[in-house]
């Protein structure tokens, strides 16, 4: 952020003039916290005072914050450790359903949310390990497909287990193990209601503070705190021995192993920690909405988080948080506003006059995934490091720098020991020595495995 | 027993369709090492185009249901539909993948996901959120009866076979015997060397995408007629099945994709009939995961090995 | 497991009958090789002779097809790379494999990785023990950077350092693993005579001051002759000569191996 890639042509007034970086970051942080406290309270007044501005509602902000938690979690997997996970929604679902199982009338279990959230996080982490252990050794694109598959399996299993009859076959006695027609997961309809988190402090709001969608302001404060905790954890992880290990693996897995890093467990830790954040967000969402249903945990959600990370800046903590707020604001508020206020009427009128049904029924809101899809492609082509990049990622993505030029050719000459033990019988040898004068082409910088 | 046979026939018919789509995945993966996420959505576009074509043909010409003229016309439209989907596919490559030719492998994959969503959204806009019924043009006659029971197969299955098998054979001939086919195979083996040998790599890649897209479009027409409907999520549904088929047969391997298609088609038909349709996807996804984890080179493993 | 090359009892590394086959090609054939403690040994030979393959067998990137490697009394054969590091063997790479987008000190801190005791959940909670460990680690890293002549460049990204500094950073990164044996793969490649001289002095100091045993692959004969206690020559995967620099220089087979090939030593 400090090294200017292009010289500024206009000297803008700089509110931070004279402050060093740390001080500036502190000021921004305090500003954001103040904004977060004040905005939900004044939102309604702002809305009536300036009705033509698309102010985001508190519920929208809650969605934004939830997706910021999701993005921070996926950022550990994708941004820190360099693993592509397209089934991230699975852990979100696991967190939500765990909460629904343990804090609702569904099974009649009512554990306090404050305890359930820990269990939900644990469940998600556990499934992260179960999924990751056999699959993290796969190459990047295969891992992506496998995780996608897992995401879908989780969704469908939750959807299907609303009507379960599991019995022993007739020749073993035919005893019914589960069911008949047991409703385990609520099926298509889902589970509803779910106990929201509460703090039993009486006040003008009643006997207790209830953090549900009936009470968006309080819920927003809760999720903002959860987001703050998540952010802090991520900062500490990034600056720790583990964070460096992740970065090293992402830079050059072979060299990282040569430094004594156990790449298998380190990647598994990234995957599992990322999953636990997703479960964390799920536990909040389920309880806040007081209802969940399987179909909402679909592939599109996973991709939306990927869009957020790519847009915000892969590996960049503040980048993905900003990205989450931006993307969900657009998705939930801005598109509708632009449609209703600006685009829908003229286009529909055009459709009416020309008789083209496509135009006549135009509504900008329906084009959200088209827009996000284009954003994905455009970002990868033009600015893969994201809008708020980590300084290092910019260079890596554009293939400049030593790591890029070097890791390109060398993957030919030094295979991972694990890979080599498996493919012992390859026909021609891996080129064992290259002449030092050759500089391999900057082909695959920082390959995500 | 009759149930089994009926399921098998459906399985084979579906399998051929899946094979047609799977070949598209495998061709592109062979040449670019890219999983073209948007491929199945191009197929979906094919189903949508067929739907619209039939709307035009039947409605505007006022033809009665099941009319032979409509049938003839829609098959006359097949090359045009295939050409359209082929162009869409090739354009996507030009716009969204070619600039990323030298980027880390994950970059074009993400771009492909983006394109997939674009196409799905287009499908949603054009078709709405639910399945849309396609004008019925295939006669519903069944052929070959049991003495007293359901039929083995019907004209619609014959149609599927009549379209897919010739396409598969033509493709096999093209890739195996023509100069462009050889260029495709060479580029798949070693892109740089092929370039040095004078092969126009960009054109070869474009050709691959054209072929894959055309096959997807043809598959789209077949599905629209066979299933009698179109749906904006057809891509996602068939994409899973086809990609699993391609992986099962060894991704990059044409014969493998065909056989894999048949296997997956039969498995999913059997699952629909004897297990429960709602578990079929889980079954197929599990197969996919198991194959990738345990034997990523596929069951018909090619020695075109896995070196990253 | 014949003790052909008379390894002395105190030898740090003993490799016996090591062979590496890749399908039909034999990259390294029946090598017996030992490194005495505290010595600087050079491994030389024309391109393609099997030197880097042999390195890779020691560090666990390749598993020997035949043969055995013992290190300081422990079995090294077939260990995974991170296990090899923990046993006390560190290496640099022929092409620089720094973590380019990490700072110099972060690179060295990664080298310290397996010596740090902190667990990840401690990192999240940040108890005083972690804060202290990180501070100590950072101090040690900077100390090593000073030692390698990179003083003051702690936060520079590795990719932004000049070439000679990158080479030295690579060595600095290998040091915190507290190795007993350091493998340097063509450390002076691409350096001018001044840089080469400084690096050679540095390597000597590593042995003299830090007590490291060093195995070098080198092409620069001045370096080899000037610094080595012993030289081993490989050609076509076989050991063709071994001895003091003077002995090896006069050996006929060695001369033939180098001159007989002419300039076509293509890798």
Can I get a quick summary?
The complex is a heterotrimer of chains A (449), B (308) and C (267). Chain A has helices at 21-49, 58-80, 89-102, 113-135, 140-160, 216-238, 241-251, 253-258, 263-289, 299-312, 317-354, 357-360, 368-382, 391-397, 402-413, 417-422, and strands at residues 103-104, 109-110, 164-167, 176-182, 198-199, 209-210. Chain A has 449 residues and is mainly α.
Question: Would you kindly provide a written description of the structure presented here, covering whatever features stand out?
Answer:
The complex is a heterotrimer of chains A (449), B (308) and C (267). Chain A has 449 residues and is mainly alpha-helical. In chain A, 61% of the residues lie in helices and 4% in strands. In chain A, the strands form three sheets. A two-stranded antiparallel sheet of chain A has the order 1-2. In chain A, helix 3 packs parallel to helix 5, helix 3 crosses helix 9 and helix 7 (241-251) packs across helix 9 (263-289). Chain A is globular. The two termini of chain A are 28 Å apart. Residues 1-5, 393-397 and 399-449 of chain A have low confidence and may be disordered. Chain B has a single domain (2-294), classed as ABC transporter involved in vitamin B12 uptake, BtuC. In chain B, strands 1-4 form a two-stranded antiparallel sheet. Chain B has a two-stranded antiparallel ribbon with strand order 2-3. Chain B is globular. Mean pLDDT of chain B is 87; it is low at 303-308. Chain C has ten helices and ten strands. Chain C is globular. Chain C starts with 12 loop residues before the first strand and ends in an 8-residue tail after the last helix. The interface between A and B is large, with 55 and 48 residues.
